[in-house]
Write a structure and sequence with these properties.
By secondary structure, chain A is mostly helical. Chain A is built from 12 helices and no strands. By secondary structure, chain B is an all-alpha fold. Helices cover about 70% and strands about 0% of the residues of chain B. Chain B contains 11 helices and 2 strands; from the N terminus they run H-H-E-E-H-H-H-H-H-H-H-H-H. In chain B, helix 2 packs antiparallel against helix 3, helix 3 packs antiparallel against helix 10 and helix 7 runs antiparallel to helix 10. The two termini of chain B are about 30 Å apart. The chains are: A mainly alpha (about 260), B mainly alpha (about 260).
Amino acid sequence: MRYARIFALHFQQAFALRSRSVVWFLIALLNPLTYFLFWSGAYAGNQALFTQWNLSSLATYYFLLVIAGSLLIVHIEEDVAHWDIQQGGLSRYLLKPFSYIRLKFFEELPWRIIQGFFGVIIFTAFWIMFGSFVSVARTVPAILFAIGIAFCGYIISFLFKMIVGLSALWLTDYSGLQQLVEAVILIFAGMLMPLEFLPNIIRQIAFSLPFSYIIYFPLVAFQGKLTAIESVRTIGIQIVWIVILAGIYQLLWKKGLRLFTGLGQ
Amino acid sequence: MKKYLKVYRALIHLNFSALVVYRANVINNILGSTVWGVFSLVSIILLTSRTTSVFGWTRYEILLLSGVYALFIGIFHTLFSRNFERLTYLIRLGMLDAILTKPLDSQFLVSTSIINFTSTIRILLGLAFTWYIVSIAHVAVTLPLIGLFCIGICIGLLLLYSIWFIVATLIIWYPDLSNLIEFLYSASNIGRYPREMYAHVNQFLFLFILPLTFMVIAPTKILLTKVTVFDALGLLMFAAFFFVCSRLFWKFALRFYTSASS
């Protein structure tokens, strides 16, 4: 109940700043649409090269990516690294009888929900206009699996970004690492293109990293491209990543907290 | 003019001193610039890995466009983009007064105070990649062509600067929208793809996108000796139009600026 109230308070704040959310959403919208336009041209000239994918599944992938990019890519790292660690705001959290990571979880969630909602509006409009063109999972089990995969993807994304944020306890200025992480996520999560299109070796690397489980697998699950066994396997791997990342977070939190100095707070 | 050149020389000196003092910051910024420079090139290599031509552009031509874009955006980020980030803070925190009261043109001061030397990494990456593509695609590059190319890049920079400045000026009315600058970083990417690609989108939307498609495509076509009158005139006219608009819009917007002490 306490956390529900915290969530409600942060939701109010995020809703009050909804125009900022619109701009963030536009950023999340721009890249997938640009990539889709590019692929539509590439597809028109070389259809034989796109086995297992056609223009309809590509369009669905990129429109779902608009939702996934807004909903599943967490941006808590700047809050943690800059405002809490660099500026010393962490002191306020340490004095409260709440878990820091849970507070951050409920601080971030409203922003994702609001921006994801804009994505849902765009996708729905696309669906209404080009209904036959959209290829999504239509059976109840497939949709439930997809929701489960997306939920696990969000947790992986959140834990990973918290770890990136905590790196500021050692680095202080983490901006270089943050930009490296953003670029790596764009390529290996499937935000640039479906992972099948990547050269073999890069694809293998992508599947062995956690990022594909944040974006790519939820997307193909919602497209109905995963069988029940593949979905269960995906959720299993996601749980393993969640355990690993939670362990790393705990370790960094315990070790890093000793280094924190909140001068003047 | 002489006064402004003198001030700009002093700014270069000040920025270089700051660069040397905060070394850890420099390493971080170099890492960031290198990452995005490499990413923009790797991403286009990956995107074109399955195709030989897109929208009438061959793979090498698209790679060349990306190389020129990396060079172009490297120059832009070195000279201007950090200033726009700073402008949002100045407006939000009501600190623009300090600039407005100086005996210099305020647009000049807000646009040029920060020189981000670490972004020169992107210029070097762009130059190296462009040179590599030019040599493997056997593009015949002559000195007059390079001269024209440089002029094209300068006009393109003026166009992009003016568009960024107009959008950044909006923050005077909407100080909460400081993330518009982040949007501009993404929107500038429109210039690294063929213009024909955007012809498929809604015509109204295409009109908004169109100016951004001139800034890099025209100089690239100069290198490829494929530049048309439409490309050259389009670049020149959009740059002039948007620059005049940015001046007028800034002067108009300042009437609505209110600082903490105003």
